[in-house]
Amino acid sequence: MEGDGESSHTQFTSAMNLTKSGTLHVPERFVLPPSYRPNLGHSPSIILPIVDLSSLHDPSLRSHVINQTRNACKEIGIFQVINHGIPLSVMEDALQAATDFFNLPLEEKMLLLSTNVHAPVRYGTSLNHAKDEVHFWRDFIKHYSHPLSDWIHLWPANPPSYREKMGNYATAVQNLQKQLMEVVLESLGLTPKYLHNESEEGSQVMAVNFYPACPEPQLALGMPPHSDYGSLTILHQSCTGLELMDRDKNWCSVQVTEGALVVQLGDQLEVLSNGQYKSVVHRAIVSSEKKRISIASLHSLPLNNKMAPAKELVDEQHPASYKEFSFGDFLEFISSNDILHGRFIDTLKKNP
Questions:
Q1: CB atoms near residue 59 (< 10 Å)
Q2: Where are the alpha helices (DSSP H) in 152-229?
Q3: CB–CB of 169/86 below 8 Å?
Q4: Which of 113, 230, 250, 302 is most buried by its number of CB atoms within 10 A?
């Protein structure tokens, strides 16, 4: 898959190449308006609630896991899981595959460059370098990943072990997501199999992000404040850099727990829960000393499925608070809007 013509190539500036070039200043297009700049070193540190999944299979402990999950989803919309069944070696291999990909020569990565948000595999920088007024300090490769056999042949053929290592991780995370969806649905009082078919047919997009060291991290961000569109995002990261917004609109720095994975609720679950659970607003900060890799496995229901509040959670006391929508509606929104100018979910609220 080639990039979209010469215009996208000439405008393209890889954040990684800027760092490599030894630039001492962040180019103008990466400098954020003052109100969006991170207040580095001043965000309080937060350790996310820990849910131990090994207790799920013990009938006497299962309800404890469900309660822990409910509390985390209600309070902040994000938690971490341990004993999740994915071997540390598989997690480390995925980070290694990502590192090896980003270390390839730029010309090779550019073969996968695309500004089309529907492309099943695309390399890029920022969010949408053709549209963004301000650019973000990250390079990424995104690829569809479920079912793996439909997509893996389109993934990067270089480095040679990329498909195998990232594929093993993608499969393991897809299986974990099924388990987590059941827990989250049960925590809402729905049956664990409530969305079974939709989950099976839903999409998994692996967003593999590289945040290079940045000469002026106080002026830029790796990712702007946003919530994820889908149902669940499962995040694996090499070091700290994720920040979330708490209920008082303060930014908190998320601590990394070795071997744990971070689980974030997306807009689909906020709508499905009729607002009982909220999707978490988060961003990525950058550092002048270190690079960071994150692998976000983004899960959502099928592209054209309409999502609405679960009818079991709607009654006279709790009328439906959101309009129904599909993934297609979301893609339409991000193709034509700058992410700094508002969240997609706000366009769905009946009484904002």
A1: 7
A2: 162-187, 196-201
A3: yes
A4: 230
